[in-house]
Each structure stands twice: as structure tokens, then as C-alpha cells.
Amino acid sequence: MINKKVFQLIENISALFSLKAIDLGLSLWLIPYLILKIGLHHYGVYAFAMSLVLFFVNVLNYGFNLSTVRELAKHKDDQIKVNTIFNEVLSVKLFLFGVLYILFLGISFIIPKFSEHFNLYFFASLVLIGDLFSLRWFFMGIEKMKFITIIHLCSTLVFIGLILLNISKPSDYIIIPLYEALGMFISSLFSFIWVLKKYNIQIGFISFKEVLIYLKTHFNSFINLLLPSTSGVFIVFLSGMLGLPSFVGLTQIGIKLTAAFTTLNTILTNVFYPLVNRNNAMEFPTRKILNILGFFVSVMMFVLGEFLTRNWLHFETEAMMQNMILIVKILSPIPFLAAIVSSYGVNGLLTKYKDKLFGRITIIASMTMLLSAILLVPLYPITGAVLSFLIARIVYSALSYYFLKANS
């Protein structure tokens, strides 16, 4: 029995690591390719649009990767309970999709900064449809992460294939989100149908009243997942609202590179979360692993940042390259800070059902980032956004550490 659990743990870690390696490898290769084809300015416009739609995607997922994963991990062998949870999530997602899709199109049409690129934003809105049938939360809950890897790989390969075949000139930046949406939709729909058959899911929608009750009950989990998972896209969005498209591109590239260095922490957090929920004795050893690895990765990012940036990206001027290197250096503490949040917040406070407390911490950190960005981006157009991101992460990790210790 123990050997089976160890094997499953290793399998889940390997699956998520493969997923992230493939995703980041292709994404990091795609960035310089797109800059070469469409230019840094158009890449910044595209990144700005995607930052908005990805925020909506995270709202659509309404904390399922926390609250639903926690419930599925405890009841994955109960067919009736699994069926109930599946239908609750599907009903809530359909309701949120209807509201969010109309809202997104309305914003894109009414606000001048968006309406001048309406075709781009319309294609970006299709990403919401692509994510509607995503079952990442389901596979995490039943601890079958290998399926997430397979599905995401299919989606990414479709996206990359369409990019290579059809993106050749600057004006093509408009249709990049369409290809991303197609990749997501095809892979998500096939996996959705497969899950229905494999796990004998009988679809039955809950009432509108029950949907509202669900939204209210799981609001704290929603906040706890939304704000941290969208902090990167949100700071890119703020950079676009307050700065120039080329600076948006630099900010987004910096955030993506930071995500690459934070990959191991993200993987281990997702694997450890259901594990710690089932066995509290695992809290301390998993915390130690996360913190040590996070510190080591941050040091690596600082030391290797310039070398990696120069060998990965090519800009028209040396000044732009120096700006990119500076952004990477500023963001280098993030992997360690993310590990602190994971070990003391997600796998600490949340596993003790301190959802409301962690939600308040998350809101404070997010408001800190917003206020910092409003103050710093106009003063420092190139580095203001990433400085705000760093300040917010410091606040987030410090409060997570303090309140777990205070509640132990």
C-alpha cells in the first residue's frame, strides 16, 4: 500500500514536471519567434489582450483547483460524490461563462483602448470557450496528473503548429489568440467526453439558486486562487494601461521567465496539496522541501539571469537588452517568495481550513501590488510594474508566514 502511494506521488510529480517542461520550453521558444515575426510593439499589444482574457479565464475557474480538489481528494472513491461534485462545477462554470463572455465582449467594444483592436479581443474571447470544458481540477482531485500533461501537450502542439503555418508578418498578431483558443477547445472537448465515459459521469445541472449558494460558499477559495494566479497577468495588464506596448512586452517576458524558474514550486505545491489534506503529518517535510528548493532556484535565477537572457532573446538595441536583464534581476527573489506562500499559505493555512484568513492576506497583497503599480509605473515605465510585483510578493509571503505561526 505504501509502495503504491509512493509510486503515485512520483508519477504525479513526473507528470506535472513533464507538463511544465513542455509548456515552458515551447513558450520560451515561441516568444523570440513571435517577436521576430510581428515585432516587439505588436507582441506587446497581443500580450496586453491575453492578460485581460486570462484574468477572465481565472474567474471562470472560480477556485476549483483549491476547493474542488480538496473535496475530490477526500471522496475520489465515492462515485455518487464524484458525480455530484462534477455537476456542481459544470453548472457553475456554464453560468459564469455566460456572464463573463458577454462582459468581455462589452468591455472590448466600449472601451477605446480595447475597441481599436476589437478583432484581436474578439479572437481572445474564444479562449474562454476553449477553457469551458477544461477538467484540470478533476484530474488534480483524483490525483491523475498524467492526463493533464497529455491534454495540455495536445493543446500546445495544435497551437504551435498553427502559429508556424500562419504567422509570417506583423499584421498576423491579431489571429494568434484564435489559434490558442482552437488548441484549448479541441483538447479540452475530447478529454471532457472521455471523462464522462471513463468515470460514468451522469450530467445533471443544479438549480440557479444552488449555483448562487455555491458561488457564495466557495468565494474564499475563489479569491485565494484568483489573485495569486492572476498577479502575473494583472501586472502585465497594468503595465499596458499605464505604459507603452514595448514595455508591456518586456514585463510579460520577465513574468514568463520567472514562471519558468517557479515551475518546480508550482508542481510540488499541486502534488503536495491533496497529500497534506489527507495527512497533516506531511506538512512539515513538504514545507522544508519547498523552502530549500525555492531559495536555491532564486539564487540560480539571479546568477544565470543575464546569461540566459542574452542567449534567449535578441533586441534591436543593447539598451533594450539591458532593460530586460534588469527586469530579470529584480524578479529573481520571486521563486523563494512563492515557496514561502506555498508552504505557509496554500499547504499551511488552507489545509487548516483558514480560507477566510488566507483570503484577506491575498487581498492585502493584491491591493499592495495595485497601489504600487499606480505609483511606480508612471515614475519608472520600464521597471515599475515588476517592482510592484516583487513588493506584493514580499507582503504576501511575510503575512502567510506570520499568520500560520500565529495560528499554530
From TrEMBL:
The chain crosses the membrane at residues 12-31, 43-64, 85-111, 117-135, 147-167, 173-196, 217-241, 253-276, 288-305, 325-345, 357-380, 386-404. It comes from the Bacteria. Pfam families: Polysacc_synt. This is Polysaccharide biosynthesis protein C-terminal domain-containing protein. The lineage of its organism: Bacteria, Pseudomonadati, Bacteroidota, Flavobacteriia, Flavobacteriales. One of its GO terms (cellular component) is plasma membrane. It is a multi-pass membrane protein. Signal peptide: none annotated. It comes from Wenyingzhuangia fucanilytica. It is found in: Cell membrane. Its main location: membrane. Keywords: Cell membrane, Membrane, Transmembrane, Transmembrane helix.
